[in-house]
Structures are given as structure tokens and as C-alpha cells.
Amino acid sequence: MSIDFTCKSFGKWILAGEHAVLRGVPALVFPIQSRNLELSYAKGEQPLELRLVGDHGKDLQLLVWGVLEKACEIKKISRSELKGTLLLESSIPVGAGMGASAALCVALTRWLGHLGYVNEADFYEFARDLENLFHGESSGVDIAVALSGEGLYFIRNGARKPLKTAWKPQWYISYSGKRGVTVDAVNKVKDLILKNPSLGEKIDAKMAKAVEIAERALQMDAKEGLSVLAEAIDLAGQCFEQWGLNEGAPAKHIEWLREQGALAVKPTGSGGGGYVLSLWDHEPPQETLNKLIPC
């Protein structure tokens, strides 16, 4: 097909700030360049045809039409106005905490911008409105990194600035063996806060401290920063434990990574499943490395 428009959005992982970001705590988030969604569009006169390819393209089958319906509803347009062929190629797993829904919402927003339905200045808010379909209440952190394609210091309804690092840690993400459901994890944390507000505040404060320490560690040199970064990751990991989002498969996977020699480990994303972040002071053994994705 003759391509008239193409764009790419990236998967993500979060160093620190998960969940607490909904309540104003900063988050440190990075794109995963090797896990992305590429959208290509060819004009046509026929009703919109959707083609899904790539390792995880088919996973988007049910999601795409729901997002498009929401977009049409917001913009007060009929889906019959959308014509041509839309090709989506994705290597981002769905339901793994890697930001597949945000990457999809950003890609479709950019495409609708190309068609003249969304102004570029409104891309972030429009894509975040679309992502509310999946999370009930999107913090916008996944949308922000999918749009920018770079590491970010993010505050909900506040600062979004590039996150510069003075060194490159040896860090990886790996699948815990269990699918994570973001809305379930978000609701679990909200329930804990409702039942025990003071504990909820203490955990949020601990996550804020983890963000502060991690940001500082990334500005140090590698020798100084490594142990400080490990402290930050462990602190953020403790928050997931207190929220009850480490149980079962994630806990076993975290233990396995520690046994392999990881310096510090924590869930990344909503927790309760999905992916886990590990920091190393050496290259992992080859057999272990085969199961890890470089950050």
C-alpha cells in the first residue's frame, strides 16, 4: 500500500513513582526503544480497514476499535468518516505494564492529528482522555513518555522535563510470569488508602523519597551512583510490598533475580504482575541475560 502517514510510539518502564504519581508524587519514567508500536496509514475511499502485525499486533485487536469509538465520541465524528487502511505493528506486550495502551493512544492521536481532527498542542490531553478507557484514571505518565520518546521527570498536572543521566546503569526488565491488570492494582492501592489513610500517606512519602534518591543517583558518577541507585530501587520496591502488589509470581521472580546476582529489584508499572526492574553491578550470566530486556 502507498503510505501517506507513519509514526512510532514507545513502550515504557518506570524507575520510581508508581501509584503515588496519582497523588502528586513525581515519577521517573523511560522509554524502551526496542519495544514500540509503529502506525502506517494509506488513504482510501473504503471504510477503515485495520491490519495488525508484529509480535504483539494481534493483541491490540479488541483495543483499537474501543479507542477509536472513544476518539470519535470526543470529537463528535462518525466512524464512517474514517476511511483507508491502518497498519499497526507492535512489539509491546499488552497487560504487562509496559505501556501498550498508552503507545496505542498516542499513535492513534497522532494519526487523527494528521487527518486534522486533533491539534498538536492538544495531543497529550487527548491521548490521556483516551487512556482513561484502560485505567479509569490515567496519571498521564505513560502518555508523556510515549509522546516524548525520552526519559522524563513527571508530575501529574505539573512538570514534565527531560531526565538527563550522567552514567548508564546496567539495568534490565524481565517478565514476572503473571499478567498485570493496571486497574486492579490501582484499585487495590486506593482501597488500602481508604482503610488506612495514614499508612497510605507514609507509603507515598517513601515512594517520593525513592524518586528523590534515584534522581540524585543518576546525576552522580557511576562509581558513586550505583549504591545510591540500588538504595532507591529497594525503597520503591518496599512500597509495592506494603501495597500488597508483590505476591505470588512477582515475588518468586524477584527472588530469582536476587539469586542470580541482581543488586536491587522492584516491580515496574502497576505491579501485581507484569515486568520487574533489576539493577546489576556486572553483566548477568548469559543464561539469565537471555530472559532480560536491556533498559
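[next item in queue]
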Amino acid sequence: MDEATRKRVRAGRMLLANKPVAEVAAAVGVARQTVYTWKARLDEGGIEALRTMARGRPSLLDDAQREQLCRALLQRPTEHGFGTELWTLKRVRLLIEQRFGVSYNEAHVWRILDSLGFSPQRPDRRAIERDEDAVLAWKQKTWPVLKKSVRGSNG
């Protein structure tokens, strides 16, 4: 059990023992309004309802949609109509909006990606069209000649 669940269960047991809400709130270190929320939950479903209480706002994407998003992100961005082979937060945000009709800000898109197991990647700072053989030939043949001619002109 995590700390928040322990607090809720402790508060629930105190409420079941007819302790006043203010006393319970002080004992577990939360606001009285929080204890009232927990009390309503306790009255509805007992201690178990406090153990399984979801935290935060429910997600706008269900599990099936999150799985679809994950599969889409494993494909190339160009397969989804983007111009290059790089996923950005803006592009993922647009993909979610187009596919699922849900609009998130980029900070939340980052949280979704993190929860799906994606991590930031830094692209190579090299042109996609770069010809390694041509670069090597230039470094071995052309550059030494240019270097010598620049040194020779100073003397």
C-alpha cells in the first residue's frame, strides 16, 4: 500500500470509530474537505472503496486508444503525413488530435509518452543525404591540398 492509500484507510477506520472529521483530518494531515470526500466514499463502498480510490482526473484516452497511439508512434512519421522522419511533441499532439479527437498541450503529451515507455531521443546532426564516401574522399584528398595552399600563400 502506498502512503496515500494508508492515509485514506487510517482515516476510514477513524471515521468508522465515529471520530469527528476535524480530528481525523488533523491526525492524517489533510484538509477537512478531503476527509468529507473520503467519508462519502467510505459510506458508499466501505474501506475497500478507499483502498482502490483512483487519483486525479480520468484519462481522456482509454487503454485501447493508448495502445493504438503506441503502435502509431512505432511507425514512421511520414506514414502519418509528416514531412520528415522525426517525431516531435507537436506532431504527437497533432496525431492524438486527428486520431482520437482529444486535444492536449505538449507538456501533457510528454507525460503520456513517458507513461507509454518512450524517452527523448536526440537526432544526429547530419544531413540525411550525406554521402560518407564522398566526405571521406574530400577529407583525404581535397582538404590536404587546400590546407597546403593556404599555408604556402602566407610565407
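[queue empty]
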